[in-house]
């Protein structure tokens, strides 16, 4: 039972990333009808927002201490982070320690602006073009973005540390009534799952309980009718593109301590996230979230040694096998709507 719960936790961890990226993809497709292959790059850029914040907070001033000498007999250089100079050692160290959560303050405006520029500068010209054209141009954009990141940050992964209090593991088994040390799990992965659920809940609450969200949902169902009511639905959909980019960016920010950011991490998640979207049902927000967690859990259980010893390599193909089975039995996916991409 403890092994099952551990794999379930691993699945929820993977599923959190899949669900958030797929949620943003579905928001874009549901509102604009665009198949956005650059969305994985938004996840990657969000992770590098965490790297950037870590570098900014690590900027230091250098002073010479004449009372201490290095091995050459010269005054020792003392590096003091600027935030420590500004706020004192205690608060300064805390700010540096919490650089990843603080990166959210950087990622939100960056991703909103980037999403707006992408939609107004490029995506809007492909609304009425075939989906194949949309895939090609957004895939090309993704490659351009990742090469830009590679140029400025290099090709190697950049370790990004979680706050000290979340760097270790916790005895999760004790919390649910198991014996001590039965289920030890990394604390930050649990934080990531809870954060993902909060973002998913916030997006659904925004769409359901705000006037802006209700108009967007109406526009997703019948864009022409909403436009005839005198509502500038295109402007609202542009904002939703920015919000979708922000969702992917926030997913990347908080994932940085789990998987050291590298320039191709967006592509690594993109294909899987599109499978998630298709399995959940094109245009279905609940379907995207459900499929994300479902496939994450299945992938986790398929990675168990007991399973791989029976079916070698099953962990590499389980998601695609499940997608094939679901699409053969339910061509629209788990919660797909009639008429979406069926014309």
Automatic annotation (TrEMBL):
<dbReference type="InterPro" id="IPR052157">
    <property type="entry name" value="BCAA_transport_permease"/>
</dbReference>
<keyword id="KW-0029">Amino-acid transport</keyword>
<comment type="similarity">
    <text>Belongs to the binding-protein-dependent transport system permease family. LivHM subfamily.</text>
</comment>
<feature type="transmembrane region" description="Helical">
    <location>
        <begin position="95"/>
        <end position="114"/>
    </location>
</feature>
<feature type="transmembrane region" description="Helical">
    <location>
        <begin position="236"/>
        <end position="257"/>
    </location>
</feature>
<feature type="transmembrane region" description="Helical">
    <location>
        <begin position="269"/>
        <end position="298"/>
    </location>
</feature>
<feature type="transmembrane region" description="Helical">
    <location>
        <begin position="16"/>
        <end position="35"/>
    </location>
</feature>
<keyword id="KW-0812">Transmembrane</keyword>
<protein>
    <submittedName>
        <fullName>Branched-chain amino acid ABC transporter permease</fullName>
    </submittedName>
</protein>
<dbReference type="Pfam" id="PF02653">
    <property type="entry name" value="BPD_transp_2"/>
</dbReference>
<keyword id="KW-0813">Transport</keyword>
<feature type="transmembrane region" description="Helical">
    <location>
        <begin position="310"/>
        <end position="328"/>
    </location>
</feature>
<dbReference type="InterPro" id="IPR001851">
    <property type="entry name" value="ABC_transp_permease"/>
</dbReference>
<feature type="transmembrane region" description="Helical">
    <location>
        <begin position="191"/>
        <end position="216"/>
    </location>
</feature>
<keyword id="KW-1133">Transmembrane helix</keyword>
<keyword id="KW-0472">Membrane</keyword>
<feature type="transmembrane region" description="Helical">
    <location>
        <begin position="42"/>
        <end position="64"/>
    </location>
</feature>
<keyword id="KW-1003">Cell membrane</keyword>
